[in-house]
Amino acid sequence: MNKIEKLIKELCPNGVEWKKLGEVFEMRNGYTPSKANPNFWINGDIPWFRMEDIRERGRILSDSFLHITSEAIKGKGLFKANSFILATTATIGEHALLIADSLANQRFTNLKICKSLEDKLSVKFMFYYMDIVDEFCKEHTNKSGFESVDMQALKNLPIPLPPLPIQTEIVRILDKFVEQQEQLERLIELRKKQYEYYREEMLKPKEGEVWETKRLGEICSDLYSGATPSTKIEKYWQDGTIPWMSSGEVNKGIVNKVDAFITQAGYDSCSTKMVPVGSVVIALAGQGKTRGTVALTQTELCTNQSLCALVPNLEITSGKYIFYYLRTQYSNLREVSAGDGNRGGLNLKMLREYEINIPSLKIQNLIVSKLDSFESSITALTLALETSKRRYEYYRDEMMRF
Fold first, then answer.
1. What is the DSSP string of 151-167?
2. Which helix (H) or strand (E) holds 185?
3. What is the pLDDT of residue 340?
């Protein structure tokens, strides 16, 4: 930061130059060629970007999932390489740098640096500044009808034009943060793959080992679902102190806190029950991918009716062993729940009869210990990534203040 401040004082004694975004960029809207005309799409080789491309390929785009032909090009032609696409409707603020001539759909506005400013504004510097443009767009929208960016406000947004040496130094610093984040993301992905592989291998009998096959109903001391107090009765929820877990929270994996609390009156009004620490909670139903997902409780809580608590019999097994094992059974559990007559949901009878492999407690503890070490490693890397992202955002904002 000291180097940036020193450069600013040396090169900008009268302050950094600013221009309105509408003066810095040539702006054009994207569009979707008619799907009814096969000549616009068949054998196309020109990238045509949608939000899916940013989600799957990141913020620097060279190719797309879908392509168009030259016959689909109209008006002023393609969006040029080294220009930006910015979502000004729907998923507002999402943006990417294009490094190939291409087009995008109507959600996006294309921003190309004006020719007169190409030698004064670094594309990579502007790439980082687009995060600030992103935030501005989300805060300045037209709410009537289909939500969209207030384009007049966007065109008036001030854009800094510091001397190129300052832009270069800022890019160098931010590139380091991005490189660190990418390294951490690769490590996390690698560690997750290792974890999944070893989890699958560890939860199978080795040569010479004798494992039993038991139903969940045999190895759990209790197995029950929860309930939801009426949300229309204020005294069941206001100033509640009893942790109450909703279906979506099963995706946390390890549950040490919940988002909602009920009162004693709310608890007494329904059939929910307290779930002991170290139990497994499984989603009986739920939208999308939630059904069949499991979590481990690390605090005492109660749940809604779409969650089932599996309280382990500690003389036979542990909650952690059941948790790790059922994580490998996600697809099987969903298949079991997709049978005729149950509307695609699990129920207590299915779970009581669901079979899992059980080795001796000694082997279970060894498996849990090894898998715990993987979990801890992934958690540590994830925290490091979150810290790196926060540092990046802090330094980016500080350096862009001028």
1. HHHHHT-EEEE--HHHH
2. helix 164-202
3. 44
